[in-house]
Amino acid sequence: MERPRFLAKPELVKSLVLLTLIVTSIVQTVILWDYHPKYQSVQSETQVATVDESLQRQARQVIVPAQTVVHENNAVFATKNTPKQIMRVIRESFEASEFKPLAVKNVPSLYAGVDEAVELILPEAYYADTLSYMLPGSYSLSGKVPQRALIFMKDDTWRIRTIMSDQSLWEGRLSKVGQGDVNSLFLKDSDRSMRRVTYTDERVNYIPVVGPEMNELFAYDVSQIQISARLDWMRDTFFPGDPNVQEVDPASSVGALTNGISVAEYDANLNASRYRNLSRNSTEQESVIGLDTIVEFVNFHGGWVDETSESQGLSLRFDAITPANQGFETTVFRFHVNGFPVFSQREAFINNDAVDLSTLRVENDGTQVRSITRHHLEIDRLISVGTTQLADGQDVVDTLVNAGRFENVTEIRLGYEIEYNEDTSRYVTFSPNWFVREAGRWIPFDQPEDWTERMMYRGLE
C-alpha cells in the first residue's frame, strides 16, 4: 500500500506539528489574559471574615526588645537606634544556629570575654519562641525563656549569648545572610551613659545615669466617637455577616451589641471598647495559644495603631503576660510615644469593670481567645507644651531603697503618664516621669500612695 504523500515528506510533518503547537500556545495565552473566573461564591463565603488591609500589622512591628544598649569595654551607653530599628537590622542580617547551653562546669558570666556588644533586654516571653520573632533561624531553646541577649564578635565569628529565666547561659552562632548594616547596631549615644540595675528576682534593666529632660506632650483625640458609628464599626469588626446581632440597653454614653453569646461594648466617655464572652468556636485553635495567634487575632479584630497615630510616634508593643487567674491569661500590649512606654490610672468601664487606657489586652483560657479590651485613641498631631527635667537614675534607686520599696520592684522605666479628658474637647496629656513596677503594678516612683492602677482580672480587683 502506498504511503500518504505528505508522510513521505518528514520536513512537512514537522512544520505542521510546530505550527499546531504555536497556534495552541497563542490561544491559551489569549484565554489566560482575557478569562476571569467567577468568584462570587468565594466572595460570599469570605464576607464573614472581611478584614480591612489597613488593619494588618506584622508581628515584628509590635514585638520588639524592651530595651537595647551598647557595651564598649567597661562602659554602657544608650543606642542611637530605636529597638524597632535594631530588630530590623538583626532580622535582615542574621540567622541563628547551634544554640546550646554553655558547659555547666565552666559557665562564665553573661559578659565574660566580651568587649563590644549589643545587649537586648527582651520583653517578658510568652513562650521560649519569643526570641524567634527577632532572630530567624533553625534552633530550639528546649522550653527555656530568654531574658537578655548579647550580640558580639568572637574569633571573627558573630555570636549570640542569652541568659534564661533560670539564669542558665546559652550561646549560638550567627550567620551573616542579609545585607543589613551591622555597624549600625553599635551606634551609641555617647551623651547617655547607662547604669545596670539588678533586682531581687535577678531581672536586669538599664537606666540613664543622668536623668533626661523630656517633653510634656499635648494632643487631641480625633477618632470617631459617635456611638452609632462605633457600633457600626463593632458590628463589622466583631460580628461580620451575623444576622443575630442586636443592640442591647443603649445608654447616653454606652453602646452594646450581642448575638446571644458574645458581647461587644463601647464606652464613649473613655472611647474604649471591649469584646468579651467569645463563643468556644471563636477560633479554630485546639492547642495552647501562642503569641503569634494573639497577634493574628488582633489583626482581625481592630488591628493595631492607625497610620495617622503611627506617624506621630504612637505604637503598640508587646509588654507582658499577666498570670492566669480563674483559668484566664492576659496578653498586654502597651502604648509607646516616641519610644517611651505609656502608663495610666485605671478608669471605670462598663458594668463597673475597669480599663487601662494605655494598653490593649487580650484574654485567653489556654486554647481560646475570650476577650479583647482597647482604647481607640487617634492622634494627628503631638504638641510639645514644655519640658521636665527628670531625676537622675541613682536618685530614683535611692528613693526606693530608703523607703523600703526596692525589694518589691522588678523594673524601672522612663515613660509617660496619660491623662484623658472626657469633655467635648477630648484632649490628652502625656507627662514624663520615672515609673516602677512594684508588686505587679506600674506606678510613678514618687507617687506610691496616690496612684490607683491595679492589675485587673475578669473585672474583679
* Helix fraction by DSSP (H/I, runs of at least 4): 10-25%
Strand coverage percent: 35-45%
**Count of discrete alpha- or pi-helical segments spanning 4 or more residues:** 8
Class computed from helices, strands and strand pairing: alpha+beta
| Number of beta strands | 25
Pfam family, one: YycH
Domain Regulatory protein YycH: 12-92, 234-450
InterPro entries: YycH (IPR009996), YycH/YycI_2 (IPR042274)
Protein name: Regulatory protein YycH domain-containing protein
Describe the protein.
- This is Regulatory protein YycH domain-containing protein.
- The chain is an alpha+beta fold.
- The chain has a domain at 70-209.
- It has 8 helices and 25 strands.
- The chain has helices at 10-34, 40-46, 83-93, 130-134, 227-238, 291-299, 307-311, 393-402, and strands at 67-72, 75-79, 94-101, 116-121, 146-154, 157-164, 169-176, 188-198, 204-208, 213-220, 246-247, 254-258, 263-267, 272-276, 314-325, 328-337, 340-343, 347-348, 354-355, 359-364, 369-375, 383-389, 409-420, 427-438, 441-444.
- Strands 10, 11, 12, 13, 14, 15, 16, 17, 20, 21, 22, 23, 24 and 25 form a 14-stranded mixed β-sheet that branches. A 9-stranded antiparallel β-sheet has the order 3-7-6-5-4-1-2-8-9, covered by helices on one side.
Q: What is the compact description of this entry?
A:
By secondary structure, the chain is of the alpha+beta class. The chain has helices spanning 10-34, 40-46, 83-93, 130-134, 227-238, 291-299, 307-311, 393-402, and strands spanning 67-72, 75-79, 94-101, 116-121, 146-154, 157-164, 169-176, 188-198, 204-208, 213-220, 246-247, 254-258, 263-267, 272-276, 314-325, 328-337, 340-343, 347-348, 354-355, 359-364, 369-375, 383-389, 409-420, 427-438, 441-444.
